[in-house]
Design a protein that fits this description.
heterodimer; A: 259 residues; alpha/beta; Alpha-Beta Plaits; Pectate Lyase C-like; 2 domains; 6-stranded mixed β-sheet; 5-stranded mixed β-sheet; 6 helices; 15 strands; 21% helix; elongated; B: 270 residues; 8-stranded mixed β-sheet; 13 helices; 41% helix; 16% strand; globular
């Protein structure tokens, strides 16, 4: 049975290790709303969430003195196919509730100093309502929510982005096909278009000034990084049909050929 | 199960109805039972092009509203008994079309037919949206001019986001390009966009180039789908389109116009 080649048969061993699990930060305490919103997110990335362990973070709720039913949220999570493995940021009563449900309490970090991992996640969820995807009349191809909660994922699109379509990525955005005139692509990180870029491309839309745009053929209607922009009138036609990168330098967009 | 083809363009007057009539006839002539539906409710045209306007009793809206059965409303074509036409209503407007109603009609037709051709109205309103919603394949009819290309591009956006396949996350609609009213001489003189210019923007699978031809108007006026005029270039072009759609390899013609004909005669590459 044992794979241990030595004479002393090992039965078990304790090791210290870290592993990654998404943290679910709750901003509302209404269980029904949470369930709906979770189902929505899971629908976008079913494989990612399938049987995933999950840390529940209620520190935001407690800041606002919103009471939450730990048993209720646990039931909902399990029903959806997630495995709550810990509670963070709970008060005494919540911690007791969690222990009664055999959910460990994470006391390693206080509410006010979330680790960078948690912070990224928090920002991502917090900025969701600000996303322009609700205004669009056509379904965005890859909504930001499809990115895993623990890290900001890269969004990859392999088909053409057609006129009238909008794409929003909460991380980097990579497009292997053309972006047509009348289409709009936005990313909080960098934008890579391995084809002709004819539409509008906005990188660093949440203010990331070192975001860049890369493309094989720049014929864009508009390019923007962290709010600074150039329209097609100001984009030198000489840069067409060549791979270029666009970056921000002292509030000026620099278009540079990639040798 | 039938294959649902939408013939669409966004822009008006590019040849959607002519194309719908021609390819429906072409498919039927090849022995596939085909139905062609006019989605241009309020502006009935297809029955004229098909030459069955005097035999319309019930229409698409009657069927959707349950006032007539599909078999009552379908008109059998006089040239080909594998082809049936479901005409649009002239007295109603496009609001009479409902997603459920259209879905039910297509579902019922699917039992019996191999191909269902949906002739989309121009624009991107209700009629056009519903014509493309259930589609498996899309024939995007484009004229070699910039506004038509732009509208087609917009249509492609709708096809990949507003269709049932898109909503259900299924395999996307197969999109094909039909470049119609193509005048090779005017392309040569730079008055018209060439195939390359159009493909640069649309990059679609080209199903065929339909040359500008007087025979199209003659055929329309006579109520005979132009594909039946085997002597005309447009008729031959549509025959090629149907053959290519069904998987046959045929070299593209009519790109170079008349000069191409001589080149072919003298053994140039074709």
């Amino acid at each position: 049975m044992s794979t241990n080649p030595t004479n002393t048969t090992t039965i078990l061993e304790f090791k210290s290790s870290t592993f990654f699990a998404p943290i679910l930060i709750l901003f509302k305490n209404d269980i029904a709303t949470i369930e709906l919103s979770l189902q929505e997110k899971i629908r976008l990335a079913p494989d990612f969430f399938k049987n995933s362990p999950l840390m529940i973070d209620v520190s935001e709720l407690n800041k606002l003195n919103h009471e939450i039913d730990i048993a209720g949220i646990t039931t909902v999570l399990r029903k959806i196919g997630l495995f709550p493995i810990g509670l963070r940021g709970g008060n005494d009563q919540q911690n007791n509730q969690a222990r009664a449900l055999f959910i460990p309490i994470d006391t390693a970090r206080t509410n006010d100093s979330p680790m960078s991992l948690g912070k990224t996640q928090e920002e991502e969820i917090a900025t969701q309502p600000a996303q322009p995807k609700e205004e669009t009349t056509e379904a965005p191809i890859a909504p930001a929510a499809s990115s895993p909660p623990s890290t900001v994922a890269t969004t990859l699109i392999t088909h053409p982005v057609r006129s009238g379509q909008r794409v929003y990525a909460s991380g980097d955005l990579i497009i292997l096909s053309q972006v047509s005139a009348g289409a709009e692509i936005m990313a909080e990180g960098n934008i890579h278009v391995y084809n002709t870029l004819r539409g509008r491309a906005l990188a660093g839309v949440q203010g990331k000034k070192d975001a860049r745009i890369f493309c094989f053929d720049l014929q864009a209607e508009l390019i923007s990084i962290a709010g600074d922009y150039k329209t097609s009138e100001d984009i030198n036609k000489q840069n067409q049909k060549k791979p270029v990168q666009v970056f921000l330098q002292d509030h000026a967009l620099i278009i540079q050929e990639i040798a | 199960m039938a294959r649902v083809i939408v013939v669409t363009s966004g822009k008006g007057g590019v040849g959607k109805t002519t194309t719908s009539a021609a390819i429906a006839m072409g498919l039927a002539k090849k022995g596939h039972k085909t139905a062609v539906i006019d989605f241009d409710v309020g502006l009935r045209n297809l029955d004229l092009i098909m030459g069955c306007e005097r035999r319309v009793v019930y229409d698409f809206i009657n069927v959707i509203n349950g006032e007539a059965s599909i078999s009552q409303a379908l008109i059998r074509d006089k040239n080909c008994n594998m082809l049936y036409i479901l005409p649009a209503s002239q007295t109603r407007d496009k609001d009479a079309l409902t997603k459920e109603g259209v879905g039910k009609v297509l579902e019922e037709l699917s039992q019996d037919f191999k191909y269902i051709v949906c002739d989309s109205p121009a624009g991107i309103e209700r009629g056009a949206n519903l014509a493309l919603y259930f589609a498996d394949d899309a024939f995007v009819v484009t004229n070699p001019e910039i506004s038509s290309v732009r509208d087609s591009e917009r249509m492609l956006g709708l096809l990949s986001s507003k269709s049932r396949r898109a909503e259900r996350n299924e395999e996307p609609i197969k999109e094909y390009l039909l470049l119609s009213r193509y005048d090779a001489d005017r392309v040569h003189s730079g008055e018209m966009l060439g195939l390359e210019d159009v493909q640069d923007i649309l990059s679609l699978h080209l199903l065929g180039i339909i040359p500008e031809s007087k025979s199209v108007l003659t055929a329309s006026n006579a109520g005979i789908p132009v594909i039946l005029d085997e002597k005309s270039e447009a008729g031959q072009a549509y025959a090629d389109v149907v053959a290519r759609y069904l998987g046959e390899e045929r070299p593209h013609r009519f790109i170079d116009g008349k000069k191409g004909f001589f080149r072919k005669l003298f053994g140039g590459k074709s």
